[in-house]
Specification:
single chain, 121 residues, mainly alpha, 6 helices, elongated, disordered N terminus
Amino acid sequence: MNTSTSIEQPKSLNIDFELYADNDQEFKKELCFLLIDNVKELHKALQESAQTGDLATFTTICHKVTVSVDMINDDELNRLIEKVKDAFYAQHPVLIARYTSTLSAALLQLAIDIELEADIT
């Protein structure tokens, strides 16, 4: 996953949609919509936690979307989520800002990549 702060060219995803969709394109689109909704919800929770300084919202949504994050199977995304949590636990403002910014960009890019994969743009 590309974690730069600008939107990049789409990257192939680590998810095998056919494993879940069994060549059913309509189901694949529905699954993609669900993943996109979860990624956007996680992004919103990240922004809220960054603004309030309270990690509770972010960790609650992380728990809620665990299955989606696991399906995406992106080690870098998982590392970024853990770095955000660690920065909050350490109450380190510079690291909180750095990692929330990086994760924010990664989540936005991921939503775009899933949209392109499903051909729903």
